[in-house]
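Quick start: read one record
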Amino acid sequence: MPVWHRRFSTATDLPPVNLLPASNFRLTELQGALLLAQLSRLDRILADTAANKQRLGAGIEDVLIRKGVAARRAHDPQGDTSIALVLLLPDANVTHKATLALRGEGAPALQLFDRARPDPHVYCFWEPLFSKASWSTAGEPWRSHPRPLEYDRQMCPETLNILSRCVHLDVSPDLQPDQVDRLADAVTKVLDALL
């Protein structure tokens, strides 16, 4: 989702209070042509990511069981793009250490929520929501809502707790089996050291 200045500028060095989220899904003809070509490769790409995620999951299954770590469950396995494997660790501090250690091992790891790293995927960084920013000069929808709307950065503490305990591991379709095995070894090494 791009972020736009109130005056329709694409400047991004503005204070967050002057930014509003905006969506633009319009494609050029060139983008459409490129995407059409990519569609013919989609089934192969998804099959490769699924195979890599399955191999990674099998490679870390033992350490997850031994350490009591849960992997995010896919509620629709056939619809899962398998581009990530997410692990739920005991607390945010361990997750932060695990993420840094995994990166040190060369793993594409990310802690899903870290207050020190603003991320527009997490609600507590949605400044336009908290400042009640509006495209409308009348202040809509804030002024005409039937009840007062107040949002704060701590309104969903359990969500932030869960996200802060999650390590996200990228799963590329381009990984070779030995690379997936090395990633599994890195996860095993880190979890064994920290838990």
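The longest strand covers residues 84-88.
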